[in-house]
Amino acid sequence: MGKVIVVTSGKGGVGKTTSTAALGAALAQRGDKVVVVDFDVGLRNLDLVMGAERRVVYDLVNVIQGDAKLPQALIRDKRVESLFLLPASQTRDKDNLTPEGVERVIGELKEHFDWIICDSPAGIERGATLAMRHADIAVVVTNPEVSSVRDSDRIIGLLDSKTVKAESGERMEKHLLLTRYDAVRAERGDMLKVDDVLEILSIPLLGIIPESMDVLKASNIGAPVTVADSRSAPALAYFDAARRLAGEILPITVPGDKRSGGLLSKIFSRRAA
Ligand SMILES: Nc1ncnc2c1ncn2[C@@H]1O[C@H](COP(=O)(O)OP(=O)(O)OP(=O)(O)O)[C@@H](O)[C@H]1O
Ligand SMILES: [Mg+2]
């Protein structure tokens, strides 16, 4: 049975869709069978980032409403063989996403894929709560700034109360993905420090993705950054994050943090102290 991941944030524009595509591709590039599911009904972003917008015929709502079977709606990535997209509808109403329909589709996807990665819309309304509903693991995407951290904190509250896992008394596995991290701005004090974010949210760190033009370039050519430029700094950070999701334990370094040798050495030195 596949594992369901929700990529969520509360605040908009923090890098959820970018991260869904990159983590999904990174897991598929390891050979796992992955489907990325776009829950952002009405905006349809994930297909653009994946470069599949012209190949969309049927979408999640079509499958939920029974207008199409799941295999008709799934789009196989042209570059990574084991990567698939279940797109969102651009035109339909959010109300077409029914809880029963979502449950059925997720259940069906779990039988066929190792990972089901759900790209959540921003906010805390219906689309976002439906995207997280069946998750085993949550990736909470946060930028190192106060409003983003505050909204992530609200989302963590929802993950611990409104999901199937929470309702059945199980622990929801939650990870923090710090994105758009700018070492220069952090040094100047224009951004929250990694330690501060970790202290406020107190969930384990999955990775730190640097602010980088490579993300924009990848999006412009319609490819996840791990596919567009697999040696770029954000791609390497996403590859490591994907390995951690798959259970590996790897050291985490703060981009640009040369003095201390990275966050993990800080954590270790603190432990040793
Ligand atoms: N590491 C990064 N470096 C530079 N730009 C980035 C990075 N991550 C994301 N971006 C840019 O930030 C913008 C928002 O990213 P994205 O669409 O992934 O966010 P989102 O959380 O899905 O937004 P929404 O809430 O609207 O769905 C995009 O233009 C994207 O290219
Ligand atoms: Mg998005």
UniProtKB/TrEMBL annotation:
One GO term of the biological process aspect: division septum assembly
Entry binding sites for ATP: 11-18
Domain CobQ/CobB/MinD/ParA nucleotide binding: from-to ranges: 5-224
Record's keyword annotation contains Transport: no
Top-level taxonomic group: Bacteria
InterPro entries, per the entry: CobQ/CobB/MinD/ParA_Nub-bd_dom, MinD, MinD_FleN, P-loop_NTPase, ParA/MinD_ATPase
Entries under Gene3D superfamilies matching the protein: P-loop containing nucleotide triphosphate hydrolases
One Pfam family in the UniProt entry: CbiA
Gene Ontology molecular function: ATP binding; ATP hydrolysis activity
Keywords: ATP-binding, Cell cycle, Cell division, Nucleotide-binding, Septation
Entry's Gene Ontology cellular component terms: cytoplasmic side of plasma membrane; cytosol
Described purpose of this protein according to its UniProt entry: ATPase required for the correct placement of the division site. Cell division inhibitors MinC and MinD act in concert to form an inhibitor capable of blocking formation of the polar Z ring septums. Rapidly oscillates between the poles of the cell to destabilize FtsZ filaments that have formed before they mature into polar Z rings.
Similarity comment: Belongs to the ParA family. MinD subfamily.
Quaternary organization: Interacts with MinC and FtsZ.
Protein name (database record): Septum site-determining protein MinD
Organism: Xaviernesmea oryzae
